[in-house]
Each structure stands twice: as C-alpha cells, then as structure tokens.
C-alpha cells in the first residue's frame, strides 16, 4: 500500500507526487490517459495570469509564489532528466489595456515592475508588432515555459524515482469506501488495471475532478471549459517575447514556433477543433504581428480547462471524508499556480507550516454548493 494515491497526472498531480517523493513517501500516481497530455499539454505556458490585477488576492498570492519557483524547477529538471522545459524570461507587452491605471496601482502595491511605455519602446523591443495607439504596458519579469516539455520532464523524473509508481491508461471507476460520510474513509480505488489502495487519496483530476468526486456524493463546482489554440511555424526571432492584446496572446518558442490563444467555449467535454476558431485566432494573431499573414499555421488543437466559479482553486481535505484531498479548479491558471498550490497541499498533508493561509482554498460547504 502506498502512502499516497494521486488521481490525475497533469502538472498538479505530478508536482504533488514529486514533492511527496522528495519527502520520502511512497506515491502511486494514476492517469486515465497519458501523464501531462490534457490541459497541462494544451495551454500556452505563460507563468502569470493574463491580467493579474483583475484576479482575487487568493489567486495572486499563489501566482506570485509560483512565478519565483519556475526558474529553479526548470534547471532542476534539465539536470535530472536532460529534458529542457525551456523557461524563458523575456517579459510581456500588454497592448490596448483599458484599465492601465488599475494595473499600475496593483503593481505599485506589490512592488511588481510594470510601466507604461510608448510606441517607440514597443517597436524597439518587437519591431514587427502593430500598435493601435501610442500606449502599452511592459512587465519585464514575466516568464514562460514550454509546457509539453515541462510535463515530459516531470514524468521522466517521477519514472526514475523508486518511491513513485506511475500507472497510465488507468481510469478510476469507483472508490472503495469504509463507513459513511463524516466518519468514513476511502481505502482505495477501483481502476481499469485493478484495485489500488493507499492511506490517503488526492484528487487532481482537472476538468474531470467533479465527475470523480460525484462518486463520493461530493458536488465540486468544476466544469470543462474548452480552449482552442493554433501555432505558426515562423522564422526564429520574428517575435522574442509574449505579446497580449484584447485577451489574445502570442507566445514564442526557441525554435520559431509561435503559439496563439485562446478561445473560451462552454461545450462540455468536446475537444474538437473548428474553422471558426481557426479564423478568429488567425485574425487576432495577425492584428498583433502582421508578418504572420505569410506564415503557415502548423497546428491547431483544443484542451479542457477546469473551470470554477471564481477561478480560486479548491485545495485541501474533503470535509466529509477524512483521508481524501483535492487540488482542482484552477481554471485558466493551472500551470501558473501549480508550484504554489501543490506546495500548499503538501504542507497540509505533511503537517508543515503552510506557505500561505490555506483558508481561501478550502472545500467548505459554502464553496462546494456554488454553481
């Protein structure tokens, strides 16, 4: 029997497993498909909420802590696995920001570098970017990570750790329960590969977390929200840093691939792509960087975000099952918040002093019945 069973092998589940294994615990991680191939793979990899000043303080606390972790985490994984997550800190240019004064006030309060800049500054940084007006915002500390490679590196590190058992293509179909609510415990799970037992269960199922927990009669208000993205194969250096305009962004990779995202679609668990989204994303991208009109779109894909009512994730113990814990509902910021949210949960699991106040993230009855 493992000390911990983690359900869900995205970056949340894998970072949780890594921290528990680092602390000397036996961990089993199961995923219904392949580790890191759902929302963790599908996103863009910006290590910040898109407009961080528009979020609740509970999200900002997690994002600020996580942002400082990624440089060292990327170096660690590169050294341990030989796989480079490609962390890049080139800053972000915000175009067409209609609440710039609020953004600057937020930055001053937190001591965050953010400044108003003009067209000359933008064109010096990114000569190919088109500006509709003479004002933009510049955040020099923002970084990004190549999330598919981050997930690949995390999986490789976990596979090499003797304390960790990875089970892919292993779908959970039920919980093994002893007793009932309030005083009950979950002894393990029934899966497509047989029964797995553990002392404590951690649900990190992303958009599928609510489906899993419904088997324990827990109504977690997490739903799938589809996002479609595209990628252009462009000459290296066409754009060097993240550029954001009207909620759409361009993210450069070291090999010239330029990611563009993303849509927000309430269509259940549908991950299909369509021509309307392709046209909309192309229009947004080429309005930011006109030279993309001559570049081919190399890829189009979709992923499912774990949407929650306020974007504040659910992190902590289930109130009615003493050994079941949850880390889910990060909406658009799963990768952004992963280092802090997993550290916060592991603090609780191991009885350590939490890095921040866990209260805003707890699974209270008030939060669970929101819809």
TrEMBL record:
Its EC number is 1.4.3.19. InterPro entries: FAD-dep_OxRdtase, FAD/NAD-bd_sf, Gly_oxidase_ThiO. Signal peptide: none annotated. It comes from the Bacteria. This is Glycine oxidase ThiO. The keyword Oxidoreductase applies. One of its GO terms (biological process) is thiamine biosynthetic process. One of its GO terms (cellular component) is cytoplasm. Keywords: Oxidoreductase, Thiamine biosynthesis. Gene3D superfamilies: D-Amino Acid Oxidase, subunit A, domain 2, FAD/NAD(P)-binding domain. Transmembrane segments: none annotated. GO terms for molecular function: flavin adenine dinucleotide binding; glycine oxidase activity. Residues 3-347 form the FAD dependent oxidoreductase domain. Pathway: Cofactor biosynthesis; thiamine diphosphate biosynthesis. It is an enzyme of class 1 (oxidoreductase). It comes from Vreelandella sedimenti.
């Amino acid at each position: 029997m493992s000390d911990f069973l983690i359900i869900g092998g995205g970056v949340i589940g894998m970072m949780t497993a890594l921290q528990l294994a680092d602390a000397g615990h036996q961990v089993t991680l199961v995923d219904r498909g392949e580790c890191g191939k759902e929302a963790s793979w599908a996103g863009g990899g910006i290590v910040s909420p898109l407009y961080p000043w528009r979020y609740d303080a509970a999200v900002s606390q997690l994002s600020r802590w996580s942002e400082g972790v990624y440089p060292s985490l990327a170096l660690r994984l590169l050294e341990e696995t030989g796989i480079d997550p490609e962390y890049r800190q080139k800053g972000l240019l915000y175009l067409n920001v209609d609440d710039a004064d609020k953004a600057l006030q937020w930055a001053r309060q937190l001591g965050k570098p953010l400044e108003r800049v003009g067209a000359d500054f933008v064109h010096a940084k990114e000569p190919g970017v088109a500006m509709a007006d003479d004002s933009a915002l510049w955040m020099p500390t923002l970084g990004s990570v190549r999330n598919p490679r981050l997930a690949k590196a995390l999986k490789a590190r976990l596979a090499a750790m003797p304390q960790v058992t990875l089970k892919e293509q292993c779908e959970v179909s039920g919980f093994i329960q002893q007793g009932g609510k309030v005083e009950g415990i979950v002894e393990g799970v029934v899966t497509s590969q047989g029964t797995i037992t553990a002392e404590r269960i951690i649900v990190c199922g992303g958009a599928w977390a609510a489906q899993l927990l419904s088997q324990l009669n827990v109504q977690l208000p997490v739903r799938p929200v589809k996002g479609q993205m595209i990628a252009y194969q462009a000459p290296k250096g066409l754009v060097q840093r993240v550029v954001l305009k009207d909620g759409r962004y361009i993210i450069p990779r070291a090999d010239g691939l330029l990611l563009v995202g993303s849509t927000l679609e309430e269509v259940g668990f549908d991950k299909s792509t369509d021509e309307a989204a392709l046209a909309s994303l192309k229009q947004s991208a080429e309005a930011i960087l006109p030279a993309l009109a001559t570049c081919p779109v190399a890829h189009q894909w979709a992923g499912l975000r774990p949407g929650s009512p306020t974007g504040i994730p659910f992190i902590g113990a289930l109130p009615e099952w003493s050994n079941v814990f949850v880390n889910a509902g990060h909406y658009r910021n799963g990768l952004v918040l992963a280092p802090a949210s997993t550290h916060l949960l592991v603090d609780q699991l191991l009885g350590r002093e939490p890095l921040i106040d866990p209260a805003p993230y707890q699974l209270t009855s008030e939060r669970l019945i929101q819809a």
